[in-house]
Amino acid sequence: MRLSYLGIFHTVIGVVAIIAAFVSLIKNAKIDLGKLAGKIYFYCTLVASLTALGLSSIKGVNPGHILALFIVVLISAAYFLYWKKPGNNRPRFVENFFLSFSFFLSLIPTVNETFTRVPVGHPLANGPKDPLIAKTLLLLLLLFVVGSILQFRKQRKINRSPDFS
């Protein structure tokens, strides 16, 4: 199946967002909107989610569109918390969770589309219900849960530090 120009643009922007998220998570243990990688993640995810609304193999609204809109809500709320509630405080827990959750949700269609298209001619999976996709998403869910717990613990430590007062 060939990609449209919108599909190619969406894919490139989405890959940039995923790379930026990984860079931010590795460097900062969170997607930090105050750093370049976090800003790139935010803007590229916003564009990728909005362009996803124009992509569909079936007519009408589908679960992918709902997922894209939900991701926009999550990153927008995180952005609001970052700019309106500065500092290391309770809103950071929610901001961190929203950004990490948006990243996890972004990986769901990414895994599905990648595994059902690559390598060209002999894809790794036959469709969304393929066991390889399910196992990969389960692994990503476990990583998300563990990562969220670690982020929560790190943020709690930051909030309790004397420098925060």
TrEMBL record:
The keyword Membrane applies. The chain crosses the membrane at residues 6-28, 40-58, 64-82, 94-112, 132-152. Keywords: Membrane, Transmembrane, Transmembrane helix. It comes from the Bacteria. This is DUF2306 domain-containing protein. It comes from Dyadobacter pollutisoli.
